[in-house]
């Protein structure tokens, strides 16, 4: 039999019962008390009607959070999808319609001076599956710059070559080469070597850079010694590779020496020290009348066109 004061104890337990926080024995005691006490039973019924259950509140909160997460995920997917479409569209546009500068592609260009003072320029791609998407001519006061763009073959572009005719009243630049009025073509190689000339043999770093640009290393690995203490100033190239008896490096040494003497203003001689069935030494002097640079009637450094002519005279092909 419950004591009268027990109602106060059970009233405190009523608030915990809906939440499932009571021990099984305590819950059974509460249920037994509610069966015997009408007043407490009415109070418990009012309590359970007035307060929402924890399960309902949690369910509403969880549903709300799920809705927010779904909306955020949907927005994120839409943004990522939109960015992906933009990137893929740009790549497709570059590959199939606009193209990229043809400097990264192997292309063969030929140039033919035409009667009446113009150049016919023909470009042909060497790789398969590549096409010219377009070409344009940019003009300055002194030059015309031909820029071709290359892309992937598609229904939009199918040409692997193009022809262009331009007036020869200005210098025309095509992929590093220069076409001059009068039918003179200067290669990118000649321009690079001409720009590497130096007035002083004492500048060791520039001398080494010049020899590397001339590709002396294709003849032999080398090191250098500079003779700049007194006149005449000279450069000694120490060949680190050994030549066989059947090799004759004399012509190669001579060609390289003439170019070095042309490109270093105050260099008076070039000496090659090398091994070929024993130690050998070969020197070339600036004032030697047998050198091509002393037989030509033009200054090879006065203009890059003259230097291109010298490369042709020396049959330089490195």
Commentary on this structure:
- With about 325 residues, the protein is α+β, with helices and mostly antiparallel strands.
- The chain folds into 3 domains: about 5-50, no CATH class; about 100-185; about 190-315.
- About 40% of the residues lie in helices and about 25% in strands.
- The chain contains 8 helices and 13 strands.
- It has helices at about 5-15, 25-35, 40-50, 55-100, 190-195, 205-215, 250-265, 305-315, and strands at about 100, 105-115, 120-125, 130-140, 145-150, 160-165, 170-175, 175-180, 185, 220-225, 235-240, 270-275, 280-285.
- Strands 1, 4, 5, 7, 8 and 9 form a 6-stranded mixed β-sheet that branches. It has a 4-stranded mixed β-sheet with strand order 10-11-12-13.
- Helix 2 crosses helix 3 (about 40-50).
- The radius of gyration is 44 Å and the shape is elongated.
- The N and C termini lie far apart (about 115 Å).
- The model has no long low-confidence stretch (mean pLDDT about 85).
């Amino acid at each position: 039999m419950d004591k009268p004061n027990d109602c106060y104890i059970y009233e405190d337990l009523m608030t915990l019962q809906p939440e499932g926080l009571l021990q099984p024995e305590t819950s059974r005691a509460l249920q037994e008390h509610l069966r015997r006490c009408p007043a407490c039973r009415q109070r418990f019924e009012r309590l359970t009607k007035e307060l929402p259950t924890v399960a309902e509140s949690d369910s509403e909160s969880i549903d709300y959070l799920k809705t927010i997460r779904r909306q955020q995920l949907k927005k994120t997917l839409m943004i990522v999808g939109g960015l992906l479409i933009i990137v893929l569209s740009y790549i497709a546009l570059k590959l199939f319609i606009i193209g990229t500068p043809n400097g990264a592609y192997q292309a063969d260009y030929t140039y033919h001076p035409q009667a009446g003072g113009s150049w016919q320029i023909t470009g042909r791609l060497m790789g398969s599956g590549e096409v010219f998407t377009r070409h344009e001519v940019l003009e300055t006061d002194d030059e015309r710059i031909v820029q071709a763009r290359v892309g992937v073959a598609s229904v939009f572009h199918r040409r692997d070559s193009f022809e262009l005719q331009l007036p020869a009243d200005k210098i025309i630049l095509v992929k590093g080469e220069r076409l001059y009025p009068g039918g003179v073509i200067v290669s990118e190689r000649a321009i690079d070597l001409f720009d590497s000339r130096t007035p002083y043999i004492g500048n060791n770093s520039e001398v080494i850079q010049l020899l590397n640009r001339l590709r002396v290393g294709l003849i032999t690995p080398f090191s250098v010694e500079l003779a700049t203490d007194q006149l005449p100033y000279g450069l000694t190239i120490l060949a680190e590779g050994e030549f066989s008896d059947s090799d004759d490096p004399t012509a190669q040494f001579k060609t390289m020496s003439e170019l070095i003497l042309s490109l270093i203003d105050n260099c008076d001689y070039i000496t090659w020290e090398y091994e070929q069935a024993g130690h050998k030494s070969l020197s070339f002097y600036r004032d030697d009348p047998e050198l091509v640079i002393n037989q030509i009637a033009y200054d090879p450094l006065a203009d890059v066109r003259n230097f291109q002519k010298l490369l042709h005279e020396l049959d330089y092909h490195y």
